[in-house]
Amino acid sequence: MNRAEILHANFISRVQASDFPETAIALRPAEVGLSDAEVADLFESQLMSRHLDLVSRRLSARGESFYTIGSTGHEGNAAFGKAFRITDMAFLHYRSCAFMTQRSKQLPGQTPLYDTLLSFSASSDDPIAGGRHKVFGSKSLLVPPQTSTIASHLPKAMGAAHAVGLAAKLRQVKATMPRDSVVVCNFGDASANHSTAQGAINTAGWTAYQGLPMPIVFICEDNGIGISTQTPPGWIKACFENRAGIKYVACDGLNILDTYKAAVEVLAYTRKTRKPVFLHCRMLRLAGHAGSDVETTYLSREQLETSEAQDPLLHTARILVENNILSATQVCSLYSELEERIARIAEIAIARPKLMTAAAVMASISPLRNVIRPVLAVAEAARTETFAADQRLLEKPQHMARLIGLALADIMLQYSNAVICGEDVGKKGGVYGVTNGLIEKFGRARVVNTLLDEQSILGLAIGLAHNGFLPIPEIQFLAYVHNAEDQIRGEAATLSFFSSGQFANGMVIRIAGLAYQKGFGGHFHNDNSFNVFRDIPGLIVACPSNGRDAVQMLRACVALAHEQQRVVIFLEPIALYMTRDLYLPDDGLWAATYAAPGVGSAIEFGEAGVTGEGEDLCILTYANGYYLSLKAARSLEEQYGKLCRVVDLRWLLPLNEDTIVAITSECKSILIVDECRRTGSVGEQLMTLLVERGVTAPAARVTAENSFIPLAAAANLLLPGVDSIVAAALAVMAVEQP
Amino acid sequence: MRAKAVVVCPGRGTYGQAELGYLQKHHADKVEFIAGIDRYRERQGQTTVSALDQMSSFKPSMHTTGDNASALIYACAIADFQSIDQEKFDIVAITGNSMGWYIALACADALRRETALQVVNTMGTLMHNEAIGGQVVYPLVNEQWQNDPALQANVSKTIEGLNKQPDVEIYTSINLGGMLLLAANARGVKLLLKHLPPQQNRYPFALPNHAAFHSPLVQPLSARAKSLLPAALFTQPDVPLIDGRGKIWQPCATDPDALYEYTFEHQVHHTYDFSKAIEVAVKEFAADRLIILGPGTTLAPPTAQVLIQQLWLGFSSRACFVQRQADDPFVLSMGRDEQREHVTKYSGSP
Q1: Which residues of B touch A334 (CB under 8 A)?
Q2: Can you tell me the ipTM of this complex?
Q3: Neighbours of B208 (CB within 10 A)
Q4: Residue B290 phi/psi, 5° resolution?
Q5: Residue A25, pLDDT score
Q6: Which of A289, A328, B163, B253 is the most exposed place for a label (fewest CB within 10 A)?
Q7: Is A563 on the interface with B (CB under 8 A)?
Q8: Three-class SS of A66-81
Q9: pLDDT at residue A319 greater than cutoff 50
């Protein structure tokens, strides 16, 4: 007999025998502000949660449920579901069934039992994930869904709390949450060790320590074990009791009255002070980590029975009986009625439709949205005022870094909910001065200088988007995004997928990257791999090669983030930031005069840039490769009489395959110039595309070597250069080289 | 094993010409229950329900006015509830439509029977004497009872336009499955009848002797009702109740004061979402049958329309529903003799 069934059998027999676990907490319902009916209501939610776990395991044995990581032992979180308002955004971990059930009672018309069973059985009727995953989420209850298995929801919860504070300052923003909201985020003791958790809690403290608003309650539901690894006794308290900027409160999650009392207290504190709290709540993990977990392989029978004797349901049953709210018989009747009721609902839920096609599964990755209206550019008068100090810049050609900065200023004017965030984006102007002057124009609330923690920067961005903002975070270097990539891969990019498109977090993530920097070498500042993004469904990667394009592409990206709620990576080639000349010193061909909104040719999503009409050779490239290929093309024409067309792909994910095939099909030879590593980079994808689409012209690649970028001139040994491009071009065209 | 059933209590407008004699026909065994209601009515100086039920002909001016219809429907519905064979059916939840909420409260024992009668009669009389405006019915589904988005969009647009006119107030009164009940002031009713495009040779039409129920237009009645009916009349229900928002009132977890507040505030002057109540009933209680109390049969189509909206048990159209009803009825309407037989252990005269 498995432990879940043992718990089940024990509950009735122990209640009937009035064999309740003892407690040192002598609280009465009225002392914590609960009526008798409210305690019974909390108990009902706890029972619902327990029976949902139980039925999921029984259905799993029949092959009808696909998720058995349960909430058994954590049912005390029903108290949080009651204490927090449904306008207090909740980022929940996977043991939150009682929380969710109780929260749903705040909004009439919810169907938590049916909905949860639909999610267990992966039905396409599941109102949040549509059968794509078992998640706790609800648009109407303001619970964004996520899997939460690696605490990756903490950075965005922290970000959402920061966004509540920002929305209070920026009244023009149509915020999702009311101004006095408090964000709630729960997680386990094992998850507290994740760097995501540590980083988010650190950032919350760092922010509050400066007196800035950070209205969040982190709830650590400490069950003392992470799968089979025990948390050292006292570890969570020792780690979090004295964190700068964060108030620590502990409660006994086995006692529903103590839990509710603590929840109300910390909520009142945070709502009033706007300061964060770490609520350490004792829980138990009963019936194993998941249905498949055989606890007896790492815990003794005595340890298991000791835990089971403290079943939180028995604690609440004791409170009900001792306070004459329900008799033991009534407790047992309620327990049995709910068991029967949930079993009935389960039989209907498992018969509901499932996802039947790949298209149906993928429909929510990046659904076409047509309800969000474009934001119009502001009137010229407002621009004149904002750009008053920039007149000289506006009149003369500028390099890409400056042009992106000017475009950002116009975007900030146009989108009143846009917020730029990142380390140094304030007075320093970001790592390469791109955001220079923006803090003076738009203030600290909209140009947010963060600490140097990429997980927190991206978490902040996601949280901002959850509260109605249009975030434009900056990551200093491409290599730095790798310690935070899951905030994009596992969180931002999956939000629409897991919520059937109901939640979205449109944003433009600006990242300075790629190689060829002359003065600043080494891998970490010249990383030439963005493959981390290339397989993320729904993500867009834009990569301009020059300032004129960058301005137009950035506008297109922001529109995609706003209107289509897409997550966009805007990859800015560092080496071309300050470049002004192309062929000759002072030719100024890589600089451009800034084009105000509505001026110049817009660049649409997917639109490539093509230079030349030659048919001898088509060079497919981007960023630095485009810059170098233009030089190479000139040599090929002047020295060998070969006419080229050079294609700046601009949009690297998704590739505009039809355009690429159409352009290359007109040429006799094709050369792919890819400044990223030979293995796994976009060049491989391009070559595959040409083959799969039957482009028969000979094709070759020039790429970077499979190496990290070294310091100084040694970098050039690994990267495509004009000479290597010319040589490869001649080879693919079968031109004999001198 | 007893079948699990959710009971659905009828609202106003369910006692029509065909129901004349309903008490006599089906509830001759409940002499004392009906006599108790009659005595109460006599004390109020009102026509007894027996007299109304036994009149030789149906008179809309007598049978459909709030002061009479409410008590008459209450008597029929409670008597039907008492007739459910509890050896065959385990009642797992109770809900109702509009005035049916008061009947649901009585069925679930959140109001004692005599108290419930007082509530029903008082509210019916208040609505009759003091309420203003009226209700207009209009369909939002096609003849197969499937949602018609174009029709819905058109209705919304028409209402939006009419509400911009001076002295017009139009609100959603009841979400009634595939039907929309609109509450409006007199001018609003007149304009709705004129501007809503005719549908199915019947709609739109105004319900006779109905006021602008479940809208801000009847908000003053809340205070009047609360002055006449104290909170102490309410207790915890014995069976889960599902209200006109889809909220479930669990027996042991119900605060009677909150139930009272809902009943005489939100329920009176906000939209009554019968569709949501039925949706919650089927999803959260997974009953084997829905039993609609009599009198009348008019609540069965809206109930079926909700089931079709939810694709419940595979119902996708009116034809599909009718087929299932013929084979093995899921919705048991006690106002229909052939379905009533499935529900009662006793039927007909003693």
Answers
A1: 252
A2: 0.96
A3: 12
A4: -105, 125
A5: 94
A6: B163
A7: no
A8: CCCCCCCCCHHHHHHH
A9: yes
Cα B163 from chain centre: 27
CB A156 within 8 A of CB A462: yes
The stretch A454-470 carries a mean pLDDT of: 98
Q: Tens of pLDDT along B59-109?
A: 999 999 988 999 999 999 999 999 999 999 999 999 999 999 999 999 999
Q: At what angle do helices B318-327 and B300-309 cross, to 10 degrees?
A: 110
Q: What is the DSSP letter of B87?
A: T
Query: Which one of B246, B255, B276 has the shortest CB-CB distance to A37?
Result: B255
Angle between helices A328-349 and A112-120 (to 10 degrees): 50
User: Which residues does residue B6 pair with via DSSP β-bridges, in sequence order?
Assistant: B93, B290
* Residue-level pLDDT at A738: 63
Structure tokens at A634: 């000139």
Are B7 and B77 within 8 A, CB to CB? no
- Give the pair of three-digit tokens for residue A78: 């029903």
- Is the Cβ of A449 closer than 8 Å to some Cβ of chain B? no
Q: How far is CA B15 from each of CA A143, B19, B83, B206, rounded to the nearest angstrom?
A: 45, 5, 18, 17
**Cβ neighbours of A85 (radius 10 Å):** 18
The residues, ordered by sequence, that sit 6+ positions from B43 with a Cβ below 8 Å of its Cβ are none
Q: Is A676 in a helix, a strand, or coil? A: strand
Helix (H, G, I), strand (E, B), or coil: what is residue B212?
A: coil
Q: Which residues contact B27 (CB under 8 A, 6 or more apart)?
A: B33, B34, B76, B79, B80, B83
* d(C-alpha A386, C-alpha A405), whole Å: 13
What are the DSSP E strand ranges found in A331-456?
A: 418-422, 447-449
Pairing state between β B272-273 and A699-704 = unpaired
Smallest Cα distance from A340 to chain B, Å: 10
Confidence of residue B127 (pLDDT cuts 50, 70, 90): confident
- Per residue in A380-409, pLDDT (tens digit) is 998 999 999 999 999 999 999 999 999 999
In this complex, do B253 and A347 lie within 8 Å of one another by their Cβ atoms?
A: no
